[in-house]
Amino acid sequence: MRTVVQLVLLVSVAEAALCLLVLCVVRVVRNRRERALTGTATATRQLVVETAGGESPSARAALAALDGRSWQAVEPTVTRLLSRVKGGSHRALTDVLVQRGVVDAALAHAARPRSLRRARAATLLALAGPSLRTDPVRGPEARRVLHALLGHRSVTVRETAVRALGRLGDSVSAGLLLTTVNAPRPVAPGLIGDALVRIGPAAVEALTAAAGDGDEQHRALAVELLGLIKDRRAVPALSAALHDGAPMVRAAAAAALGRVGEPAAVAALADTVRTDPSGRVVVAAAEALGLIGDDSAVPALQQTLRHRPYRAAHTAARALLRLGPPGRTVLTDAARGADPAGAHAREALSLTSDHRGGPGT
The domain containing residue 182 runs over which residues? Predict the structure, then answer.
């Protein structure tokens, strides 16, 4: 019996020793492999730098022609750089990824059933997006693949696809992104908004249509994004949104017009500060008039200063200060009074005095 126990213990010790030996061998092999990859990456880093510089076609060709092990070491550096460079540097690095087949592999993996592969593929397409935008073959294919991923069951895949479309996008992508706000499998509005702002002027038509359609949150998001894009073509739609039934939308439209800064919107904003029943909207419109800086807004702001509640009057005084001598004249006259308008005017004028070094300036 003792012999059997000793034999079992001996076998257990031998198995443990074998496991330790295997672990040691694996660690040694892994360390050697990592050192080799690090050394290779260091040796090829100059090729990456010269390629990103955009002035060395020979470096680009050499980078694209690396052997498998060398490319494996340097590929993470190339993809990381894509998020940090623009213009010719971005196109040069993307061209290398195309030549190595990395972009085509991402397009293929984006259609695979496994979510992790799809998310990684969409991430690569997002990084390469600005340069793929003009690729006559891979650009449309990337858009088709990413459009399909907007309805994926994984929120990670959907969000990655939204980011990718923001970097790759066009007017069709803009319209599809807007529909995902209220989709059965939605994406956070903030993420969609960021993608639409990245798309920029190409998204104006879709956002203009959305500004007059859908629920009030959808309309408010559309007009806010139009203001962030700052395209003058949006002014008629934003001016129309000042008459929307929802105060949230009217306030967002007023703020957007202030960001666009188009003097043609002054009349509509002036009418809003005079007549809108919502204090929130009046404040947003008064701020917008101050940002635009057209002195034709002086009468409307003067009326707001004298006859509106505290916050609106306070905002009107600050806006008048932005309108130069005509606005300052109104504030100086109002400052002589003992009423609330006088207090707001004196406070606004004191800001200028402090900024210029004292009340005597």
Answer: 109-210
**Of all helices (H) and strands (E), which one includes residue 61?**
helix 57-64
In a domain, 345, yes or no: yes
Contact 274, 305 (CB under 8 A): no
Q: Do 198 and 238 have their domain in common?
A: no
pLDDT at 287 over 70: yes
In a domain, 5, yes or no: no
Is 190 inside any structural domain?
Answer: yes
User: Is residue 93 located within the same domain as residue 114?
Assistant: no
- Does residue 170 share a domain with residue 250? no
Exposure string of 16-42, with b = 16+ CB inside 10 Å and e = fewer, is eeeeeeeeeeeeeeeeeeeeebeebbe
What pTM, to 2 d.p., does this model score?
A: 0.78
Count of the separate structural domains present in the chain: 3
- Integer Cα distance of 115 and 121 in angstroms: 10
Query: Could you read off the pLDDT of 342-356 as tens digits, one per residue?
Result: 999 999 999 875 434
Q: What is the spatial distance between Cα 323 and Cα 302, in angstroms, rounded to a whole number?
A: 12
| pLDDT at site 34 | 53
Structure-block tokens of residue 286:
């008064």
How deeply is 259 buried, as exposed, middle or buried, from its count of CB atoms within 10 A (0-12, 13-18, 19+)? middle
